[in-house]
Amino acid sequence: MASENAAIEPEISVQANNPEFYEDSSAEQLITKKDLNKMVWRSLLLQASFNYERMQAAGWLYSILPGLKKVHKNKHDLSESMKSHMEFFNTHPFLVNIIMGIVLAMEERKQNRNTIRAIRVAMMGPLGGIGDALFWLTLLPICVGIGASLGAAGNPIGALVFLIIFNVVHFGLRFGLMRYGYNAGTNAISSLKENTKKVSHAASIVGLTVVGGLIASFVQLKANLVIHAGKAEIALQEDLLDKIMPNMLPLGYTLLMYYLLKRGLSPVILILITVVIGIIGKIPFPFGTIL
After folding, report:
1. Among 83, 93, 198, 217, which lies 20 to 30 A Cα-Cα from 60?
2. Average pLDDT for 14-20
3. Could you give the percent of the chain with pLDDT greater than 70?
4. Average pLDDT in the 219-235 region?
5. Which residue in 116, 97, 118 sits closest to 108, CA to CA?
6. Cα-atom radius of gyration of the chain, to the nearest Å?
7. pLDDT tens, position by position, 158-195
8. Does the reported pTM lie above 0.85?
9. What is the DSSP letter of 111?
10. Helix 57-71 and helix 96-108: axis angle, to 10°?
């Protein structure tokens, strides 16, 4: 027995002195739903102290600090945890809460600090890309399309509808992902890996559908040319192009701009090209204007 105790004691002392572990290793569930909601509201200031050295680190620590204070009663442990969370951090601000939930669950269980750091770093990059695709390329165009359509029709609540729809999804995800991340802990990571591709694919389909609708509604391009064949007159737009496919010119021009963008032309150049085409199209030629 003496030899067994001698073998165990050095291992315990090594862990106690290891900077990767906390001095107080007692783990108990202390975080409540109220605490999680409070940290969600604080996460709205994630980018308030944005800087090019540590990006969102200060806002991240500010957001998660109430949970850290509740978990770490030992001042040294709290200090080390705060130092760790002040390291470089950058992700999509709308999806940060799932990382917060997972990290809080790990901090509450007093897991290895290097493991917590690795999880935080591993998640922030992919969620940044997913957030851009989900919010800026999908949700925002859908909401703007709905609000702008109402505004164009003379409905004054178009802007309000846009804000309501966007923020219902926005805040719903913030609070939902915070609780999901905290309740699932590190198990949430495997679930995210399994479902990310499905969500991204579905979001891409919805986004492309909305963009297609916006092309027909907002890209105004119409040919005014009239073809004369003897006594017959054929309007290029109404009698020919619209018979083949309505809004063919707006679709073709949009696809052309997309092609040129993929070829490396900057958006500024494409805007200038559009302005030039618009000016030339409205010049009164002997046969009339082109557009």
Report:
1. 198
2. 56
3. 81
4. 74
5. 116
6. 28
7. 999 999 999 999 999 999 999 989 988 766 655 655 56
8. no
9. -
10. 30
CA–CA dist 63, 49 (Å, integer): 12
Contact 221, 254 (CB under 8 A): no
The three-state secondary structure class of 45 is helix
Furthest C-alpha separation in the chain: 115
pLDDT digits (tens, 9 = 90+) for 107-136: 998 888 888 898 898 888 888 888 887 888
Please check whether residue 110 is in contact with residue 26, taking contact to mean a CB–CB distance below 8 angstroms: yes
**4 burial via Cβ count (<10 Å: 0-12, 13-18, 19+):** exposed
Long-range contacts of 221-229 (CB under 8 A, 24+ apart): 221/249, 221/250, 221/253, 221/291, 222/249, 222/291, 223/249, 223/290, 223/291, 224/288, 224/289, 224/290, 224/291, 225/287, 225/288, 225/290, 226/287, 226/288
Report the distance separating Cα 232 and Cα 234, nearest Å. 7
Q: How many residues does the chain have?
A: 291
| Token output for 130 | 């997913």
